Amino acid sequence: MDDRNIQFMFWGLATAWGLLAIYVVMLAAREGRLKKQLDSLKRMIEEKQ
Amino acid sequence: MAKNIRLGLGALVGMLLLRNLYIILFNLPDEMEQGPVYRIFYYHLPAFFAAILCYITALVASSMYLIKKNLRYDAIAMSATEVGLAFAAVNLITGMIWGRISWGIWWAWDARLTWALICWLVYFGYLMLRQAIDDPTERAKNSAVLSIFAFVSVAITYKAIEWWRTQHPGPVLSIRTGKQLIDPVMENMLYMNFLALATLAVLMVIIRLNQEEMQRQIDGLRRRAHAI
Amino acid sequence: MVFLQIAAKDLRSELRTKESLNASLSFAVVILLLFSFAFDPSSEAVAEFSGGLLWLVFAFAGALILNRSFARELPNDCLEVLIASPVSGAQLFLGKTVASFVLLMTIEVICLPIFGIFYDITWTPQALPLLGIFALGTWGMTILGTLFSALTVNLSLRELMLPMLLYPLMLPALMAAMRLTTILLAGNAIAGNDMVWLRLLIGFDIIFTVLSLALVETILVR
Q1: What is the residue range of A40's domain?
Q2: Subunits touching A (CB < 8 Å, at least 3 pairs)?
Q3: Predicted pLDDT at A7
Q4: Number of domains forming the structure of chain A
Q5: How many angstroms separate the CA atoms of B210 and C28, rounded?
Q6: Which residues 168-227 of B have a C-beta within 8 angstroms of C?
Q7: Which of B32-41, B89-98, B195-204 has the lowest average pLDDT?
Q8: Would you say residue B89 has pLDDT above 90?
Q9: Is residue A10 part of a domain?
Q10: Is the pLDDT of residue B169 over 50?
């Protein structure tokens, strides 16, 4: 029983960190995507000018 | 320059969180009845406060948008709501895991969990509405109004749910929050972790805001690129 | 009282075809039928959630009616014309709220005896207080629902978004209405501790009526 107690504690703490980490990864992914779009658009405009 | 500030802040938050985690795992005593599982609480409650902070920010930003009509406020409201949902999810799920051991069940329809779920659904609805509207001004206007309604409703529901659940005594006792923790060491850690998570929330909102700004730049450039 | 004219116009147009009314009413009866399979109507326990059941039916039927509220103005650009007209947004909104309120109350008043028959519940002793609670709860639903009808009118997933946004936000009113209705259906009067629910319902109605009237112009102005 005590073992299960500690197990769930780890799962709980892991979830807290995990969920936040997932959100950070989502933010990072979006940042990368936006940066790529921005760069390609800037290049496209420079080429056309 | 702004990027360096963000990196610096991020590093600071990371260090604080790690330091807290170390203390939580090794230095703090066990709670009398619950054993080590209660340590989840050190994330469960601060995440809740961080989420509330975000929602209040969203309310203020939405109101400011309706007054000033500056789309920057709309971006703040959206970012704050999104980050708030992330922390609210942490609150909900850690609550369920903790409850599985403390109460023996994954879910209980007690006042706080129920209210937390409603809150999450309401603000998720806000994001869903935003997704459905394309025009930026329409989206900003409508979601700002929804945000204000959401906050008022959620505030009223808090009280209503308390009355509802106390009249129907459930199979579980609601977990008493920080106010009754007499051990100052524990209380201190709660505040420290709240500081860490709140700062993290602010950082995330700033990053998200920045991304909204980038999106706006992209939209503008796209129009120019196709016009040439 | 321009809003009364708007309400009359909506009601007249609805009564001509009775489209919404028939659909909502049949839908309500079908749900009552389905619930009779989900919950045993003859058991003692029904008395405990009778109010809840009834208000679920009203909520589902209400979504159908509220959806039509602003959506009926979409063909032929009627909505644009109404917004551009000298009628203030608040009057337009209030008029539509009143129209939906009348339609929904009609459905509720018809559903009540049907419910009484299906579930063997005598509701006559507290009939007038029941009507009062119906009115208060329905007002809460229609004031919020009409606002969301305006908000979602241009969305493609309107039929889904309206209930999705409306139901969680009207929960306090729904809870209060459910609780009070259960009490009245059991034949008791509302007294003592239960008054808090009545106050909640009235408070909810007042707060959201004021809030809606204040903010509806923002939504309607293009």
Answers
A1: 23-49
A2: B
A3: 87
A4: 1
A5: 48
A6: none
A7: B32-41
A8: yes
A9: no
A10: no
Provide, as residue numbers in chain C, all residues whose Cβ is less than 8 Å from the Cβ of B121. Answer: 168
pTM for this structure? 0.88
pLDDT confidence of residue B5: 84
Domain that holds residue C6: 2-220
Under 8 Å between Cβ of B50 and B198: yes
Residue A37 within any structural domain of the chain: yes
**Contact yes or no for B47 and A16 at CB 8 A:** yes
Give dist(CA B196, CA A17) in Å, integer.
Answer: 12
Tell the burial category of C1 from Cβ atoms under 10 Å away from its Cβ (0-12, 13-18, 19+). Answer: exposed
Longest dimension (CA), chain C: 56
pLDDT digit string, tens, across residues B7-39: 888 898 888 888 888 888 876 676 666 677 778
What's the one-letter identity of residue B58?
Answer: A
Q: Mark whether C and B touch (3+ CB pairs within 8 Å).
A: yes
Contact C72, C13 (CB under 8 A): yes
Segment C37-56 shows an average pLDDT of 85
C192–chain B nearest CA distance, Å: 13
Whole-number mean pLDDT of chain C? 90
Of B118, B141, B156, the CB nearest to C218: B141
Query: How far apart are the C-alpha atoms of B59 and B150, rounded to whole Å?
Result: 9
3-state secondary structure of B35: strand
Long-range contacts of B189-194 (CB under 8 A, 24+ apart): B189/B20, B189/B23, B189/B24, B189/B28, B189/B42, B190/B41, B190/B42, B190/B45, B190/B46, B192/B16, B192/B20, B193/B17, B193/B20, B193/B24, B193/B42, B193/B43, B193/B46, B194/B45, B194/B46, B194/B49, B194/B50
**Touching C: B residues 11-70, CB under 8 Å:** 66
* B-C contacts at Cβ under 8 angstroms: 75
* Contact between residue B63 and residue B69 where contact means Cβ atoms under 8 Å apart: no
The average pLDDT across C94-101 equals 95
- Best probe of the B interface among C147, C151, C209, by most B CBs < 10 A, is C151
Q: Which residues have C-beta within 8 Å of that of residue B98, sequence separation ≥ 6?
A: A8, A12, B37, B38, B40, B41, B44
- Number of structural domains found in chain C: 1
Q: Say if A12 falls within a structural domain.
A: no
pLDDT band at C206 (very low <50, low <70, confident <90, very high): very high
**Interface check B101 vs A, CB under 8 A:** yes
